[in-house]
Specification:
By secondary structure, this protein is mainly alpha-helical. The protein has one domain. 56% of the residues lie in helices and 5% in strands.
């Protein structure tokens, strides 16, 4: 039997994904000319409003990039993000099959619930029987410690 992906494997995978996404967000911020020094420029109220609007726009673009990264990668044939691939975990539905894009999207936005109150939804991974966080329970997903999703199910007839 293949074990479930535990808490620390998932934390390590998320750290790797966060590094990748931070690089992507920095590129997007660089394209739009938004840097950390902008609030320190001492501009007037009109300029601050423009900068605030620009920062909000970059936040929105970053949210979309993060959502698409997780949803597309987890619903792909790989069934994992780059970080998950690196540590050897895959995401499946409750039957061990590949996620649909809609289920992967629900899982991504369910992570907001997992982090709302002191990240208890994430900490649940360490204590639930099937190593599910709140976002996994909401989306009906499981994380397995394997690099090959094909090991999770076998469609051959037992008595052929």
């Amino acid at each position: 039997m293949i074990p479930y992906g535990g808490f620390w494997w998932r934390v390590l995978a998320y750290i790797l994904d966060a590094i990748i996404l931070q690089i992507a967000s920095s590129v997007v911020g660089g394209i739009f000319g938004v840097g950390l020094a902008l609030p320190l420029t001492g501009l007037g109220a009109a300029e601050e409003t423009t900068i605030g609007t620009m920062m909000f726009g970059v936040f929105g673009v970053t949210l979309i990039i993060n959502w698409l990264y997780f949803a597309i990668m987890e619903s792909s044939k790989l069934q994992a993000t780059v970080g998950k691939l690196a540590v050897g975990v895959v995401v499946t539905d409750l039957k061990g099959e590949r996620l649909t894009f809609a289920r992967a999207t629900g899982r991504y936005f369910g992570k907001i619930l997992s982090g709302v109150v002191l990240c208890i939804g994430y900490i649940m991974v360490a204590f639930t029987e099937r190593k599910q966080g709140l976002h996994d329970l909401v989306a009906g997903t499981l994380v397995y410690k394997t690099r090959d999703p094909g090991q999770l199910y076998d469609n051959r007839e037992v008595f052929a």
